[in-house]
Amino acid sequence: xxxxxxxxxxxxxxxxxxxxxxxxxxxxxxxxxxxxxxxxxxxxxxxxxxxxxxxxxxxxxxxxxxxxxxxxxxxxxxxxxxxxxxxxxxxxxxxxxxxxxxxxxxxxxxxxxxxxxxxxxxxxxxxxxxxxxxxxxxxxxxxxxxxxxxxxxxxxxxxxxxxxxxxxxxxxxxxxxxxxxxxxxxxxxxxxxxxxxxxxxxxxxxxxxxxxxxxxxxxxxxxxxxxxxxxxxxxxxxxxxxxxxxxxxxxxxxxxxxxxxxxxxxxxxxxxxxxxxxxxxxxxxxxxxxxxxxxxxxxxxxxxxxxxxxxxxxxxxxxxxxxxxxxxxxxxxxxxxxxxxxxxxxxxxxxxxxxxxxxxxxxxxxxxxxxxxxxxxxxxxxxxxxxxxxxxxxxxxxx
Length: 399
What we know:
The protein has 399 residues and is mainly alpha-helical. Helices cover 79% and strands 0% of the residues. It is built from 17 helices and no strands. It has helices at residues 13-34, 36-43, 47-75, 77-96, 101-115, 118-129, 135-143, 145-159, 165-185, 198-209, 212-242, 247-275, 281-299, 307-320, 325-334, 341-370, 374-394. Helix 1 (13-34) runs antiparallel to helix 9 and helix 15 (325-334) packs antiparallel against helix 16 (341-370). The model is unreliable at 1-7 (pLDDT under 50).
């Protein structure tokens, strides 16, 4: 990106555009999940097939993660994000006109390819433009685009009682194209991009793959994202099936989780910058221990739970399960030299994509096999605690 064409203060235009990249990267596929009750009925899908839509998204992320990271290091933030917006728009438009399950899976796969460039590109922007002592705060703020996109998706899910889900996805596709044009306008190849061909790329990949800090965060990322994406995929279905909630109320709870997720990404990140002076392990362990507790609470939900309790549960899930990504990415980026930041985030994205691919499928399969959500939420708590253990034991912070 040509930094001369935007304001000199990175906390203004640059951070706003980085945040919007996450908003548009998120709103499309989360809208599909939030509108799942209507889409499931229109396309005649079962719970496992609904989960496979999210799994296709994350399978694409897994395939593109490492290539995307090294591509960002070589093409720069602007070109990477303009390309990603084009793919995201194509996927949303494709799903808007799908007539069945197969084309729906292909469309979410294309969205996943597009989103594969968003995290390494925006993280590279933060590494390039923000000083280290405020880096996690900037990372947390730009990552609020994820729950903000989810909040828009929850609004879309509430709107399906009066508007079909198809035109909603067309609107999302159009807005994504607009943001892609903005990034294309400022795209420029970086002056310090890594040189060499395939051999140099493989050297960069090896360097980040075997970095101890990156390895620890990759292990945690598999666990955390498996549960995060299961929660995003099934929360509205869970509330309707188990708590007998209406579609608007289930969508409201999803929106609440996205709001608290937005706040959590900022609060936890600022705490790791200012309260613990850049030491992020303890904050991450505390946050995700809370996420495990929230999963166990979800396992106990019944149709006798009050509206207040359900909203509170969704809020706690958002503040924990939806809020871990900024620190995960910050630790990965800080564990390697700056020129390899994109590759490090790509490596982590590969790991989280594996979790995001497997998690919703397993969660849905357990629901179909047991005709209950209880065992799925208990397993989710155990999976999160596995990631907490990876962080507590495997991450060795620098003094």
